[in-house]
């Protein structure tokens, strides 16, 4: 007689909010962890500013916000400090803080989510908040894994004291690309064991949307148009002497690129917002950018209420992508769609290197519109060959991404065997 699998309690920290890319990484993470564990209950600590946003997952998931009233945050901080010296002052805890500590207590495994680089100078302004929740896991001596985010760079010496100490509390360290792994090794020393895997979202492949299911803004069918999935970013250019000049150069390059593709092919451009909600949204910038396109360019902004799964299926039906945000390049590439990557952080360059197409990746701080146009011409001219190249790479990337889950699975207590419904070898849902 087959016994049912013991249910594992898995606590996930540092989940970014209002971002369809981080949502996609989390969806794939939950699907693969549930398969690996046999049965699991998940608790996710998240930081959505828009508390009205609710994400639906097929797994059993409790969502706990880390943005809380000052009094509750203070009670959690004092509780953790007392816990550090051996005092369990549970009576101090209030509201959300009490629920968060309960999640730590029942957890069989604690994982830091596949986003980032939230550990590193790029987001140093709120990095200590992320480290606090890692520290709390170490206080409860829970198995702890870094679930393949990006990381670094690490140039801030005072923060590096915290980083070195707390990175060493992880039982398993994974990064999603080699550049981040090198940053971690540089921080901790060459003896540090950092497993280079791949972005969590690659663990699962989704079927592209059928074109007949998608219509233009005037409800006309897409027909035989050349479909381009576009993500754009209103980047702040931190550390750059003249951010406004860089912003203008980027916008002019994007308009020139779209205009060129529209003239070369009978195209339709789907502008897909990654950030969504009342506080963080790509929609206003996409509207501003679209208004700069020539009148002859056919374009529309995709509904920002669509889930990350929907966005993946939309990029999957495209002929080409233009991605200034990180995950849209993964959404398209995971369906075999080639395109042009404009990166603002090393994570996207790292992915394009994994794909073997870094010559189609361009630094947002040093853009040349003509280089982008030449890259687009290559994608349009050699599309079939590039698709074949990507499809050849994908099985290896799927397997590499899944290795993150395999490594985290080793941290779970011994589980009874239960019945599982696996995904197919290429990552598609069975």
| Helix/strand order | EHEEHHEHEHEHEEHEHEHEHEHEHH
Q: How confident is the prediction overall: mean pLDDT?
A: 92
Radius of gyration: 22 Å
Distance between the termini: 26 Å
Give the total of domains.
2
Please provide a written account of the structure.
With 430 residues, the chain is of the alpha/beta class. The protein folds into two domains: 210 residues, Glycogen Phosphorylase B (Rossmann fold, 3-Layer(aba) Sandwich), CATH 3.40.50; 181 residues, Glycogen Phosphorylase B (Rossmann fold, 3-Layer(aba) Sandwich). 41% of the residues lie in helices and 14% in strands. It has 13 helices and 13 strands. It has a seven-stranded parallel beta sheet with strand order 3-2-1-4-5-6-7, sandwiched between helices. It is globular. The protein starts with 7 loop residues before the first strand and ends in a 21-residue tail after the last helix. The C terminus is likely disordered.
Summarize the helices and strands and which ones pair or pack.
Layout (H helix, E strand, L loop, with lengths): L7 E8 L4 H18 L2 E7 L13 E6 L4 H15 L10 H12 L2 E4 L14 H13 L4 E3 L10 H11 L4 E4 L2 H11 L5 E3 L29 E6 L11 H22 L2 E5 L11 H8 L8 E3 L6 H9 L3 E4 L2 H8 L5 E5 L2 H10 L5 E3 L5 H13 L1 H27 L21
Parallel strand pairs: 1-2, 1-4, 2-3, 4-5, 5-6, 6-7, 8-9, 8-11, 9-10, 11-12, 12-13
């Amino acid at each position: 007689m087959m016994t049912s699998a013991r249910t594992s309690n898995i606590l996930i920290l540092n989940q970014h909010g209002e971002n369809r890319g981080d949502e996609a990484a989390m969806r794939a993470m939950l699907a693969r962890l549930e398969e690996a564990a046999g049965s699991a209950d998940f608790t996710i600590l998240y930081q959505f500013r828009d508390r009205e946003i609710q994400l639906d997952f097929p797994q059993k998931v409790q969502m706990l916000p880390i943005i809380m009233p000052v009094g509750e945050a203070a009670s959690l901080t004092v509780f953790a400090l007392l816990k550090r010296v051996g005092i369990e002052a549970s009576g101090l805890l209030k509201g959300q803080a009490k629920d968060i500590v309960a999640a730590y207590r029942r957890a069989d495994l604690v994982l830091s989510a596949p986003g980032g680089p939230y550990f590193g100078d790029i987001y140093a302004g709120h990095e200590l908040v992320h480290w606090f929740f890692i520290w709390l896991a170490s206080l409860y001596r829970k198995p702890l894994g870094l679930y393949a985010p990006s990381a670094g760079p690490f140039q801030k010496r005072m923060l590096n004291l915290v980083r070195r100490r707390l990175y060493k509390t992880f039982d398993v360290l994974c990064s999603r690309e080699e550049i981040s792994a090198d940053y971690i090794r540089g921080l901790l020393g060459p003896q540090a064991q950092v497993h280079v895997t791949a972005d969590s979202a690659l663990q699962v492949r989704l079927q592209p949307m059928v074109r007949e299911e998608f219509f233009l803004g005037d409800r006309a069918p897409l027909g035989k148009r050349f479909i381009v999935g576009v993500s754009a970013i209103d980047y702040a250019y931190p550390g750059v002497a003249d951010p406004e000049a860089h912003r203008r150069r980027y916008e002019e390059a994007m308009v020139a690129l779209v205009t060129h593709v529209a003239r070369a092919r009978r195209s339709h451009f789907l502008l897909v917002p990654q950030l969504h909600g009342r506080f963080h949204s790509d929609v206003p910038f996409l509207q501003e950018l679209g208004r700069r396109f020539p009148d002859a360019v056919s374009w529309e902004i995709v509904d920002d209420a669509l889930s990350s799964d929907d966005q993946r299926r939309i990029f999957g039906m495209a002929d080409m992508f233009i991605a200034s945000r990180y995950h849209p390049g993964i959404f398209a590439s995971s369906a075999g769609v080639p395109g042009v990557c404009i990166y603002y952080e090393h994570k996207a360059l790292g992915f394009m290197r994994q794909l073997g197409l870094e010559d189609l990746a361009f630094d947002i701080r040093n853009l040349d519109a003509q280089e982008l146009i030449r890259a687009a011409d290559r994608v349009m001219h050699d599309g079939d060959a590039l698709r074949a190249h990507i499809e050849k790479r994908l099985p290896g990337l799927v397997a590499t991404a899944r290795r993150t889950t395999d490594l985290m699975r080793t941290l779970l207590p011994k589980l009874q065997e239960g019945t599982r419904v696996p995904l197919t070898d290429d990552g598609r849902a069975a």
